[in-house]
Write a structure and sequence with these properties.
heterotrimer; A alpha/beta (676); B mainly alpha (325); C mainly alpha (485); A: 676 residues; alpha/beta; eight-stranded mixed sheet; 24% strand; C: 485 residues; mainly alpha; two-stranded antiparallel ribbon; 16 helices
Chain lengths: 676, 325, 485
């Protein structure tokens, strides 16, 4: 691409943020170029400076942030030299921006119409009637039904996906040349994400605007981007066209990112992990920022900061391996796989048929809705509504579904952290739902739970040893204190942390390390079943791989049964033996992981699977676009819960909820398509 | 929404009952009427006859809760509890020690109290919000910094000094307005200037700082960044976006005190000689007129509860999330 | 024994508080994560300077909280008797101020009384003149001529002493820091002077210097004059001001101390257990807070007065009676102010109970009380701390207003409120008797301002989002109703 075509040019941009612990060099010399009609994806893990890059371009930095150097040119305009007043014409006019959390990014006390109108008033000549017509047009364009009425509504009356659509409409109102999208779909479910990504692609096609897409998700990049820049620790480490990058990533960090993604192909072999975590950006770096975590690093990497090399037309990489000194960068990549430690065989061989460890049948968890003068119960939120499943010892059942489908409540209901409304939970043959509190306490050591958020799952005021010992002492395990300390050391070793860690407090650990501690806390009571509630969804890809490996490894060594609650189908594919897909409080399809994911039967499962962006460019897929969003569990649709969104709905679907149909030994699906 | 308001109204009933029981216990159980009489008449030279007479004059000579000497319902109604506490619900306050009807006194004195309290409330709200907006606009500059320091300094000064200082400076030294007094109508305006001014100034420190934190908190939110990303001018961001959202905590916080404006301000009224309910209360406290104090405690509680209900209603008005759900 | 120790109820509470603070400090010292917010406090220049000033007030208050009754001169054959007057260490230290009384008003540093009196001259004639003071400037032969040089000399001496003391502190500080960091003292001095460095020692030293200068000059002048004049009965105003400090401190700290258990227990229980416990506790505090604070206090104090009047036998000295009344005032203020903190703690507990580490504890079958004590309480303590420091200044201000209304401390107890109350009547005089008011103003302002600045630093360091309102609506109903958040 020649320079003349460039829409946005960023040169050696450097942004510093004053923090309590010193100056954070959030963006440290980033250069990139976006052409007209081109989507440039800025890819990176949390804290690498990609959002700050976007905010620097918009000059919307937080109060303590400053651009200390570099240049940003939009067409012929030097944005950094513009006075603030002129910059305001650019924001919302020539550059539109959308943000990650549509729920927070919209003003809660202004109607959507008012929020669009003010953009039109500032950036266009449209007024009054014409502006109102244009607003309707914009909402229509982003696919909001009945736009005339919805304009007068407030953001809280919109669903999550609709809010993001409205955000996009607002960004389009100024007819921008460039759209900056900061993690636009991260807060959305996959089916909604597919809708929004599709919308963004279509808009770009029609308007020809350039797009700067900021994301951490390789799948989203693959689906949307023309060119990709990979950021690490405040710097761009690699830039390439999407095809090149996915075909042959050059920088060791990029290579690792791909290898760390969980998928079925990597089952049983362990995921690639990047050891350690992103270095803090407060200090000066002497060598390469990735050197500490890089397996190819040699002395030069630690002594000298690598320059930007362009090994091919349109490609760039910041790594000493590509300085053209003759060393073939990928020569020794073959040895890489050999470094993955051999996976030990499971303590429970696959061939042995196992007695069920946990049998859940017809479990219901309903929450009353109280309304009116005397807070009468007027309805029930049927979070879990007739759930049945079975887990065998040493095996993993993945419970999959979008947010709000009741999967977390199901996990808590099974452990009686939330009291079930009805149904039966039998653990090792014993009914749990009728146990007294005291008797239940006795049994609690058998089944445990690991939570999603590593930051709120450890009490910040307790030492690690106190955290791990809590369960032991509450359940009366291992009497002596010396014995207990020995056990704590052993547990920390099991999850890959040094024994000294026990004297420290949670805030001294990173997210991944905290999740290890949470796992150690659970292991302390030797449970037979662990419920994992989205254990990796708050973690970066490279750290996620570490935790998934640990979880898989523990199961093989200790023979623990897992109920793995997640929305991430890649993780399911990698880890689960069996899958149960949940929709609005009920399981719509279940079976062996390979069977369900390879040959989904229920239309919802199919849509869900097709909506997941795939990283492998060779895979062709047709996204089954679902209409609308998950209905409220307080008033589920009559008949099959899924029929209003189902592309294959039949008259029968409106009549009654389909009974599960058995399709094989342990495969069943609840859909009228299969009920004879 | 109607059901919501009715529920809040019903919730007020047990609270009023609770307040009534607290006042009853405080005034008649902690100390017996005999103790009060002795205190009032002077502990030294008191005779049983004097005590009896004192109690009879005030109707304290009956049993507290149950009168075995009377028949039927009268056994319950001819008691101190019924006469002094239950009747408060009907706003029958009885008579003060000087023999005047407390209810009438309250009605007469509400006007002067409101004449001070309402202007203080409105002018104060306007002034504090304006100052806070200015500071929020110039946040993290020397103007903001100096403003915060000034606020902290001003809130460190006792309200008494504002009154004494202003009376000395403005009335005594410069002779701009009378030191104290009150009159109805336009001629009375000159008496109101100083108390209103003092009332507003005394609250500047705490309130401005408080509103400033609300504004700054709102300004840190994502929708403000969105507004800036849309190219909105800073003043529009401040007034259309931030102010609209900040008004929810500000208004609902202010609404709760509106009914209490009737009660006036104890100190201001007594210093400036305003014949309102505030000075009435102070006089009653100083002359140990229990009937008046008791009435004011109950009245204050009723007004506060009204304020709570108004707050709930105002929430539904300013916040679309509550209004429309 | 030459004295008989007297432990007033408020003394006991104050020393209990001191012990608690020391114990807490010792506990925090060894825990880095608890220490971290205090380090942030230590980095705040305004907070540290304010803390330095506050330390002098606290010291004064603590000295004034060790009480005893001195022995009366021995009479042979009788058991040793003790004076009914209860003194404190501060009274002993300020003995000249306390005992050198004039007849009535005199201006600061005056040599003559404020008002003319009819005096009979030695030759029998009678004139009206300003009589010489018994103590103030009593050593001067010719007050007209000698007054200024004498005042200057004394003040200069005091300032010189202050400079010496200050220099000693600076030198000590530099040496200690230098030894700890293993550098030369000159480097530390450079760092302090330039205002760089982790801890803002420069601000601390400036505040310390100012305080020492004021104290030095005042102390030196007080040897020959009434530095701040005398009041109607001839009592030294500086003495009154210093004695008021303790009353303010007691009101500001003991009140929070007595209400803390209620607020903590009820607030946390309401938030943690939810359901009917929550309903009941909410009902309790809504009811209590719906009675306007000042009126509830007024009513309660009135009733207490009745009780005290009717039972004089309960108190053996005036001091004990005044002290009981002070304690009672603290209790009432506590009752009216716990609701705000309880509401705050309820909200925080509601949030905390949904956190995953509490859910994890449930999954282990940990009992409710253990969860409250191990998980909830440690995680709401910062709110309690912020509430304690933020409430302090509001309570000190409230005392003045309440005493003015007549429902504050005992009239015999020296406090800012009683000082203002007494002085206010003299405002109408011409020329005005301004010094009592001015002294009360300056002392209160210095104390409350430094407390406010210190509280701000603490709040910013621990959690800037916590909003704790002044519990007592002091002057106006339309004060920011901060408690309702």
């Amino acid at each position: 691409m020649s320079r003349a075509e460039a829409l946005l040019e960023v040169g050696n941009l450097r942004t510093w943020i004053e923090g309590d612990g010193g100056v954070v060099r959030a963006v440290d010399g980033v250069s990139l170029r976006i052409g007209r009609g081109e989507t440039f994806a800025l890819l990176g893990e949390s804290g690498c400076g990609k959002s700050m890059t976007a905010l620097s371009i918009m000059r919307l930095l937080p109060e303590r942030g400053h651009i200390v150097g570099g240049e940003v040119r939009l067409g012929d305009t030097d944005l950094l030299a513009l006075p603030e007043l002129a910059m305001r014409r650019v924001r919302g006019g020539r550059i539109g921006m959308i943000f990650q959390e549509p729920g927070l990014a919209l003003n809660p006390v202004m109607t959507i119409g008012e929020q669009i109108d003010e953009v039109l008033a500032v950036h266009t000549a449209l007024r009054g009637e014409a502006a109102a017509r244009r607003a309707v047009e914009l909402l229509e364009r982003v696919g909001i039904p009945d736009p005339g009425r919805r304009l007068a509504e407030y953001p809280f009356q919109y669903s999550g996906g609709m809010k993001q659509r409205a955000m996009i409409a607002m960004a389009l109102a100024g007819e921008p040349e460039l759209l900056v999208a900061d993690e636009p779909t991260t807060a959305l479910d996959v089916t909604i994400q597919a809708q929004v990504l599709e919308l963004m692609r279509a808009l770009q096609r029609d308007t020809g605007m350039g797009m700067l897409l900021i994301t951490h998700d390789l799948g989203v990049v693959q689906e949307t981007a023309h060119r990709v820049g990979v950021m690490y620790a405040g710097q761009l480490v690699e830039a390439a066209s999407r095809e090149d990058l996915f075909a042959r990533p050059l920088h060791p960090y990029t290579v690792k990112l791909f290898a760390a993604l969980p998928a079925r192909g990597r089952r049983g072999v362990g995921l690639e992990v990047i050891p350690g975590s992103v270095p803090p950006l407060t200090g000066e770096f002497r060598g390469c920022r990735f050197a500490e975590r890089c397996e190819f690093a040699w002395e030069r990497c630690r002594a000298e900061s690598p320059a930007w090399h362009e090994p091919a037309e349109g490609r760039g990489v910041r790594c000493h391996l590509f300085d053209g000194s003759g060393q073939s960068p990928m020569a020794d990549r073959g040895s890489r796989t050999a470094q993955i430690e051999a996976i030990p065989p499971s303590v429970i061989p696959c061939s042995v048929p196992l007695a069920p460890l946990l049998q859940v049948s017809d479990l219901r968890v309903h929450f009353p809705i109280r309304r009116g003068l005397f807070k009468r119960v007027v309805g029930q939120v049927k979070a879990v509504d007739g759930l049945s499943l079975e887990i065998r010892g040493g095996r993993t059942l993945a419970l999959v579904g979008e947010s709000g489908c009741g999967k977390t409540t199901a996990g808590k209901g099974i452990l009686r952290l939330v009291e079930p409304t009805s149904g039966s939970v039998r653990f090792a043959g014993e009914e749990l739902t009728t146990l007294s509190r005291a008797a239940l306490r006795e049994r609690r050591r058998e089944f445990q739970i690991v939570f999603q958020d590593p930051y709120s799952s450890l009490n910040p005021r307790m030492r690690i040893t106190e955290i791990i010992e809590e369960g032991m002492s509450a359940l009366g395990i291992e009497g002596g204190s010396a014995e207990r300390q020995r056990r704590v050391d052993e547990l920390l070793g099991q999850v890959g942390l040094p024994a000294e860690a026990k004297w420290r407090y949670p805030h001294e650990f990173s997210g991944g390390q905290r999740q290890r501690i949470a796992i150690a806390r659970v292991l302390a009571v030797n449970p037979k079943l662990i419920v994992f509630d989205e254990p990796t969804s708050a973690l970066d890809v490279s750290v996620q791989a570490q935790i998934l490996n640990l979880i898989g490894d523990l199961q093989r060594r200790l023979g623990i049964g897992y109920l793995f609650i997640t929305h991430n189908l890649g993780v399911v594919d990698y880890l689960a033996d069996e899958v149960a897909v949940m929709y609005l409080g009920r399981i719509v399809e279940r079976g062996a992981a390979g069977a369900v994911l390879g040959d989904p039967r229920h239309p919802y499962t199919r849509a869900l699977l097709s909506a997941v962006p795939v990283v492998d460019p060779a895979t062709q897929r047709d996204v089954i676009r679902l209409q609308g969003e998950l209905p409220s569990p307080a008033s589920p649709p009559v008949g099959c819960h899924f029929h209003p969104r189902c592309p294959q709905a039949m008259p029968a679907c409106r009549e009654g909820y389909p009974e599960p149909t058995r399709l094989g030994a342990d495969r069943s699906v609840a859909c009228h398509l299969y009920s004879n | 929404m109607i059901a919501y308001i009715i529920r809040r109204l019903l919730y007020a009933i047990p609270i009023l009952l609770g307040v009534n029981i607290i006042t009853f216990a405080l005034f008649f159980v902690v100390n017996s009427p005999d103790d009060m009489a002795r205190m009032h008449l002077g502990v030294k030279r008191v005779t049983p006859e004097a005590i009896q007479k004192w109690k009879e004059e005030r109707g304290y000579d009956r049993p507290l809760l149950f009168n075995p000497a009377r028949q039927g319902a009268a056994a319950l109604t001819d008691t101190i509890f019924f006469d002094k506490s239950v009747k408060l619900f009907a706003f029958q306050f009885g008579r003060a020690d000087d023999g005047r009807d407390i209810g009438r006194e309250i009605r007469n004195r509400m006007g002067p109290s409101l004449a001070i309290a309402v202007p203080v409330f409105l002018a104060g709200l306007g002034a504090y919000i304006s100052f806070a907006l200015i500071m929020a606009f110039f946040r993290a500059t020397y103007i903001d910094f100096a403003g915060v320091i000034l606020c902290v300094a001003m809130m460190s000064i006792s309200g008494l000094f504002y009154i004494i200082g202003s009376q000395y400076l403005i009335s005594k030294l410069w002779k701009l307005v009378p030191i104290s007094g009150y009159a109805e109508g336009v001629t009375g305006l000159k008496f109101l200037v100083l108390p209103v001014l003092v009332g507003v100034v005394a609250g500047v420190g705490a309130s401005t700082r408080w509103y400033r934190t609300i504004f700054l908190e709102e300004m840190g939110k994502d929708y403000v960044r969105t507004a800036r990303a849309k190219g909105m001018p800073e003043l529009r961001v401040l007034f259309r976006h931030v102010l609209a959202n900040a008004m929810i905590p500000i208004l609902t916080g202010a609404v709760v005190v509106i009914p209490l404006l009737f009660m006036g301000s104890l100190i201001t009224e007594s210093f400036f000689g305003i014949p309102g309910l505030g000075s009435y209360t102070i006089d009653a406290i100083n002359s140990q007129d229990f009937a008046v104090v008791r009435s004011m405690v109950f009245l204050g509680s009723v007004l506060y509860i009204v304020g709570l209900i108004l707050t709930d209603i105002s929430y539904t008005l300013v916040d679309p999330r509550i209004r429309l759900e | 024994m030459p004295f008989k120790p007297v432990l007033l109820a408020t003394d006991a509470l104050i020393w209990l508080l001191v012990a608690a603070v020391l114990g807490f400090a010792w506990y925090v010292r060894r825990r880095e994560h608890l220490l971290a917010p205090w380090r942030r406090v230590a980095r705040s220049a305004s907070g540290m300077a304010a803390g330095t000033v506050l330390a002098f007030f606290v010291l004064t208050g603590l000295l004034d909280s060790v009480h005893f009754r001195p022995a009366l001169p021995d009479e042979p054959g009788k058991p040793r008797a003790y004076a009914v007057e209860v003194l404190s260490l501060l009274d002993v230290a300020l003995k000249p101020l306390r005992t050198n009384k004039e007849r009535t008003y005199s201006a600061p540093l005056a040599t003559h009384l404020f008002s003319r009196e009819t005096v009979e001259l030695p030759d029998g004639r009678i004139t009206r003149e300003y009589p010489r003071l018994r103590f103030g400037g009593a050593g001067l032969k010719d007050p007209e001529a000698d007054w200024l040089p004498d005042v200057m000399a004394r003040a200069g001496l005091g300032l010189a002493g202050a400079v010496l003391a200050w220099a000693a502190v600076v030198a000590g500080l530099i040496l200690v820091v230098a030894r700890r960091r293993r550098t030369v003292p000159a480097a530390i001095w450079q760092e302090i002077r330039s205002g760089r460095g982790e801890v803002p020692w420069r601000a601390v030293l400036v505040a310390l210097g100012a305080m020492l200068a004021v104290i030095g000059a005042a102390a030196a002048l007080a040897t020959g004059y009434h530095v701040l004049g005398t009041d109607k009965v001839g009592q030294d105003v500086l003495y009154l001001s210093l004695k008021s400090v303790r009353t303010g401190l007691v009101i500001g700290t003991v009140t929070t101390l007595v209400m803390l258990p209620f607020a903590l227990l009820l607030g946390v229980m309401a938030g943690y257990f939810k359901g009917w416990v929550d309903d009941l506790i909410q009902y309790l505090y809504t009811t209590l807070s719906s009675v306007p604070g000042v009126l509830l206090i007024a009513a309660t104090v009135l009733m207490m007065q009745v009780h005290i009047e009717n039972h004089p036998e309960l108190f053996d000295t005036v001091t004990v009676r005044a002290d009981m009344r002070l304690l009672f005032l603290c209790l009432i203020l506590g009752v009216t102010s716990w609701t705000g903190l309880a509401r705050l703690l309820r909200g925080e507990s509601l949030k905390l109970r949904e956190l995953e580490y509490i859910q994890a504890a449930h999954a282990f079958g940990v009992s409710d009380w253990r969860i409250i004590s191990r998980h909830i309480l440690p995680n709401v303590m910062h709110i309690v701390l912020i509430a304690v420091v933020m409430d302090f200044s509001g309570l000190v201000l409230a005392e003045a207003v309440l005493s003015y209304v007549g429902v504050g401390v005992d009239p015999s107890m020296i406090s800012f409120g009683t000082m203002i109350n007494a002085a206010r009547l003299e405002l109408a005089r011409d020329p005005m008797v301004w010094w009592s008011l001015a002294a009360a103003f300056v002392f209160m302002f210095a104390m409350v301002l430094s407390a406010n600045l210190f509280a701000d630093a603490v709040r910013d360091a621990f959690d800037p989002r916590v909003r704790v309102g002044t519990a007592v609506p002091v002057l106006q109903p339309s004060r920011a109703p901060e408690a309702r958040t």
